[in-house]
Design a protein that fits this description.
The complex is a heterodimer. By secondary structure, chain A is mostly helical. Chain A has 5 helices and 2 strands, in the order H-H-H-H-H-E-E. Chain A is globular. Helix content of chain B is 35%, strand content 26%. Classes of the chains: A mainly alpha, B alpha+beta.
């Protein structure tokens, strides 16, 4: 992946997390059907970033801390976002995804209990799928 | 399965006549500003133009495919301006319209990663 393509992808992921998805949550953007398209862009962008990170792409490594920061923001959005996308679990049912792609399992990520020493990421993903509610 | 769903059945053979009707319908939706409520906000924010949209949905250079993401979609990606346009067909819930637009480095990769993806028209460079 060349530098421009990487930066385009990172820009799309950043805009999704920082601006677009929060705008749907706060009702500034109101066409709930178009939220599906924005969710799709966010998920795809994260897929591409994961591929870049796995290939030891230098651009990706340079921006690793920003990607991790955006990931934490995504996890913080999940409780408000998931009720707006009732088809979310179908995405991995209709096209299976490895659990390493945790952004397809936001509904199974649970907040960890409070701990005395604050850790950098207070979430964990169970290794085995949770039963459907 | 209702009639609208049948049209989008992935196993259905799509005739050239049906594809021409589809492309004409998308252009007609755009000419008549049948877009999602947030479409023009995204257009301003992401910096794509009406001219780029017109090129992306009507040029034979654009790659066109159908997919599912919470609803049926047809996506258009132009390899030179790199603009991707998502369009939704008519359904029981809401009428057809252009849903979103964004720049993608590789729209073919985006489309082919989607659920129930099927190519409607390859890019004719």
């Amino acid at each position: 992946m060349n530098q421009n393509d990487f930066l385009q992808t990172l820009s799309n992921y950043r805009a999704s997390i920082v601006k677009t998805l929060p705008s749907y949550i706060s009702k500034q953007l109101t066409d709930d059907e178009s939220l599906a398209d924005e969710l799709s862009l966010m998920l795809y962008s994260r897929d591409v970033l994961a591929r870049a990170l796995a290939s030891a792409d230098m651009s990706a490594q340079t921006h690793l801390s920003e990607i991790e920061q955006l990931d934490r923001q995504l996890l913080n959005l999940k409780d408000a976002l998931l009720p707006l996308v009732p088809f979310y679990a179908q995405l991995r049912q209709r096209k299976p995804r490895p659990r390493s792609q945790w952004w397809y399992y936001l509904d199974e990520v649970v907040s960890s209990p409070p701990v005395e020493k604050k850790t950098s990421i207070n979430y964990w993903l169970p290794l085995t799928p949770q039963p459907a509610p | 399965m209702n009639g609208e769903d049948y049209k989008w059945n992935i196993s259905r053979e799509w005739s050239q006549r049906w594809i021409r009707w589809l492309l004409h319908t998308v252009e007609d939706d755009w000419r008549n500003a049948r877009v999602s409520r947030d479409f023009f906000d995204k257009m301003r924010e992401r910096g794509f133009t009406r001219q780029q949209i017109g090129v992306t949905i009507s040029s034979s250079e654009s790659y066109v495919g159908r997919y599912w993401h919470g609803g049926n979609r047809v996506g258009f990606w132009h390899p030179r301006n790199q603009l991707f346009i998502a369009w939704k067909p008519n359904s029981l819930r809401s009428p057809s319209r252009l849903m979103s637009g964004f720049f993608l480095a590789d729209g073919v990769d985006y489309l082919s990663s989607q659920i129930d993806f099927r190519e409607i028209r390859g890019s004719r460079k």
